[in-house]
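Lab notebook, bench 4. Continuing the backlog of folding jobs that were queued last week. Each job is logged with the same field layout so the records can be merged later without manual cleanup. Today's entry covers Nucleoside phosphorylase domain-containing protein, a 632-residue chain. Filled in by technician R.K.

JOB TYPE: sequence-to-structure
TARGET: Nucleoside phosphorylase domain-containing protein
LENGTH: 632
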Amino acid sequence: MVQRRPLRRQDYTVGLICALDTELAAVQEMLDEEHEDLEQDGHDNNLYSLGRIGDHNVVIVCLPSGLMGNNPAATVATQMRSTFRSVRFCMMVGVGGGVPSGEADIRLGDVVVSQPHQGYGGVIQYDFGKATPNGFRRTGFLNSSPPVLLGAVNKVRANHLRGRGRISEHLARLDSLPHFRREAAGPDILFDAAYNHQGGPSCRLCKLDRRVDRPPRGHDNPVVHYGTIASANQVMRDAAQRDMISAEFGNVLCFEMEAAGLMIGFPCLVVRGICDYSDSHKNDRWQAYAAGAAAAYAKEVLLVIPRAEVAHSTPTSMNVESSVNPPPPLRTDPRSSTQGFSPRYPPDTTNRHLTPGTPPDLCSGEFFASPESLCRAIQRDDLERVQVLLASCVDSAEMLLAPVVATGEPWYVSRWREYWGIPSLERRTTALHCAVEAAGNHSLAILRALLSALPWRLIDAVGYVSLVDSINASERARGKIMLAPDSVGGHMQTCTPLAWAAILGNAMAIRMLKDARADLNSRANWLRVTPLMAHCFLTVAPSAGDATGSLLGGGAFLDLQDDLGNTALHLALFARNSDIAMALLDAGASVVLPNLNGFRQCDIARTIDGIPQQVQLAIRSRTPLFARSFGY
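JOB STATUS: finished
OUTPUT FIELD FOLLOWS
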């Protein structure tokens, strides 16, 4: 009897992926226990079925209706692993087209399982490569299945050799559903490879004298075959091409459309029930029974894998350590300042230094093509891995730009909670933000690779960056400055990659982002500050001249105002960034625009302490006589 009980996301350790509703139904019928649905994650478009098989809590997901192929499979798997972070391994379970040969007597209803064979990892992507003068050349590689699954496969094979196979037992669970019965599939007929289908939804018009005579087996139970599965973004319906590709790769057993989307980023075991022969006679009559056979084998594999204790953990932390306590912050609301021109952020004189901690550890997983694994590769300065992950997503590389969530190290968060009363320091950073802050030997090449792979409309992706956490964690800025969260306890700043590059003073990144059509005047953040404004007040670069010049030379507007009416020059003067202030003045920035409290740039230069005389004189020389205040 099926029971239902709610669990937590971290309790699910096995992922099962299907492409068709028939495959999903077959896998659902293999559950020993069904679980209640969990609350939908707002960032995840997948719909999941939850339950238990043996000792394993499993999460099942099916591709959206009408979407098939490697790219949708990679997207679905990415979202699944992002939501269910305790998943240890995954299996792709469904149907495929068989490749009958003298070496493999494959029949309809049999099962093909991916397994390393003749130098291939178990799955090959036969349509991935490049056109050359000598013809199409296949390139790239795919990983093999995880060792735990390959070990389970061998254990199942041994059980079958001892007469202890359980596929028929599990398949019998579908007997109550007429659609999945073998007799509903019809006859198993293999036609000569040179004989094409004669038309119609069935082979009623095809000549039976062109069928291939094969000896009867004497039983109707599925036979399991192990070897190479061929994957591509197209259906194989050509027997001649089928046999040619099979021979090229050392006897391919099956053709399908989703596995290659998973194997680079997240290796899994691929289990396919054979529903046709990858030829022009293809139809759907055997799909249900073949899906049931694949689901039955998948269950048999799971039942031989012991349950592993999974450590329940929160999203990977930002490990920022400090040997000094953060100073008590200013609690005064800047809007009520009697001076009238104080910005919402604390002035530069309150800055303190945090001892550099360990580099931020945003991501988990080495092979799965996900936003987390891409950020991990960027942090490790692993250009080759970045290129592989981007290539694995082909046309859907934009999915890798989803924000990665990371929370502060517990001690660090507790100190800020004590001072500010905020619940957490959370960061949602994208791969572009990670690339902008990276300072490795390959950081520019990595950023270039990202910008080449991503659609231009995503260049201004917004990350929710807690600047207290992020600046002190960044390799470029760690320990240079410390800022407070905003007055309502949320994020100090939401910023685009260009704004983040401007804050970090990364001039090369600014130029590359500009060339990629990033918006120099974007104000997609809480304070409505442009990248130039953020650079003027928040830059942590020891020498910001190149970055300032890149922003000013690229068309940044000088006199835009934030939500307090401050321009870039206002903010540069507040922060006493005299070099930046001089660059703004030389570029023609206004010195007489008032902020919301009526204070002009010339007023600030005259009254605030620490403004160099050179800057004061430059501002005075640019202030019209009618606008000069007393003292100028």
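OBSERVATION: The first strand starts at residue 14 and ends at 18.
SIGNED: R.K.
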